[in-house]
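Human: We require from you a standard protein entry with sequence in single-letter code and fold as tokens, and nothing else.

Assistant:
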Amino acid sequence: MTNETEKQAEAELGRRDFLTAGAAGMAGMAAAGMTAGTASAATLIPDPENIWTNSNTGRRVAIINDALLQIGPPLAINLAKAGHDLVIGQPEEGLVGKLEALGSKVVVIEGVEQDGPNDESNPEHAKKFVDAAVENFGGFDSAYFRTAFHGGSDILNVTKEQLQKSFESNFVAVVEALQAVLPPLMEAGQGQVLILTSASAVRGPYDYIPYVSLRAAANSLIQCAAMTAAEKGVCVNAFGTNFLNYPDAVESYGGEDAMAHVASKLPVGRFGEPEEMAHVATPFLDGKNMFTTGQSIMLAGGYNSRMDDLKFTKW
């Protein structure tokens, strides 16, 4: 027993010596910049007091293509509070005054719209914002694009026309937006892009096939684009929402009773507010996090992850 105890003690001492030597060795390697994954990688630690910018004004610049609907207005306010100048389309009534009161210079792009010949499915839509940012500020730092065409049918009734319209507005429009904003950001060596898709891409209504399918495709597209842009210092992410208390939500859901019924089915028991979603979206655009990319952030009050239809009686 004595010999066995001595052997265990020697083994324990040997393990401690190894761990001590290993910790010291790793510390030395770290000091020399030789630890795994750091040999050639640059470390970017954002300075909250001196955030980077690609503009020639010393202030960050953000593009928001839709400042009228969904999270656009509160997102613009958040970025203005964070010291951004803004290039926006279709501002909500009174929004420009609010942004300017917060110290932002605001450039409003005319001739773009959410419904009509100059909506996001027009190839020139995104380019107008990029050109205006370069002309007025010498560049931009982040871009938020909302693309959307709702509608569709189930698999037995969906038409080629519905599929084509959804393809153009919910997929091709994302391609064109990324092709407009990524080159100048990649050339500058830093930037952030956030594309609004939909949480329906994760779990959507079966009778909305064009919308659900093309939103899911857009999320995959954005992940692929993120890999192209990452090595040039540009972060690209998808942001999807569902069940938000927009001004037209009551009408969209068919009245207050219908809306209350939908809310009762959500795990959180209520609809979300646009300001809540804007609060989540802001860190993907404000320059303080340059490590998160290629993600699809889906927010729907738990609906996209709850398995209501499964009943587990035993395991």
Remarks:
- Residues 1-41 form one domain.
